[in-house]
Amino acid sequence: MRALITGGAGFIGSYLAEALLDKGWKVSIIDDLSTGSIKNIEHLKPNPNLDYTIDTIMNIPLMAELVDRADCIFHLAATVGVRLIVESPVRTIETNIKGTEIILELAAKKKKKILITSSSEVYGKSNKVPFREDDDIVLGPTIRARWSYACSKAIDEFLALAYYRERKLPVIICRLFNTVGPRQTGAYGMVIPRLVRQALKNEPITVYGDGSQTRTFTDVHEVVWALRHAVLETGAEGEVFNIGGTEEISILNLAKMVKSLTESDSEIKFIPFDEAYDKNFEDMGRRAPDIEKARRIIGFNPQCRMEDILRKIIHHIKNNS
Fold it and tell me: 36, 131, 153, 189: which could form a disulfide with 9 (CB 3.0–4.6 Å)?
């Protein structure tokens, strides 16, 4: 089996490539390194079953060749991170929508199975928690840039499902909630690596807002397991799945846990959202998934505890700083 991974040098993509190679798959990666890093796949380069291309998915002739060689496609290439989304809305919209449109059209020509990674952001401001795949989407106004990402990922989903219904393209959509683990960078607004680095340096641990907002976090290995099994499960085609953790934690309690596990002397400092991002920024009070559908159809059952996930990340950052 040969897989094409767009965004394969990114955080999740590199773990997916590693897992597939370990299972004996052949893997092709394409990444423009805008948010990914060649360091993420450095340890995979000696594997004869890996080939990688540093280029954009907007290069249609190249993408046509890569799609033609693949048995299935994992489309992970996207603009990621709250800070990047707020600061670069044009890039966010164009990368997410145009890139997905290109890969779907090329996949449809050869009827190649494709998994699209979407985001929990599509649920927007909905307060019907836990979120279920068929719940309504509640987005904020267009004057607030953060909703451009949610909207772009929703359009990706609409487009993918249209290809499934109209052109019989075998499509799977996985809405990823906060995926975390070693190698994740805090450069684009990812909360855990930022908190851990601050704590290890005994700098103020910055919590945005009042810290009462809650999230779930999922170990990247469990997310990768879900992606691989979703592609292998025929019953997953044409479906949307929440892929996320079950342990809901407030950002303030997360910061306290990081401080405790790092034995840091840092103070916890509260930063208003308009100071951290911009004056029009909006955040959600709770974001937690209902994963019953993923459990039932693909066998997804995350077991990693928050404390254990944090210990692995702290260890990695300590030894790679």
Answer: 36
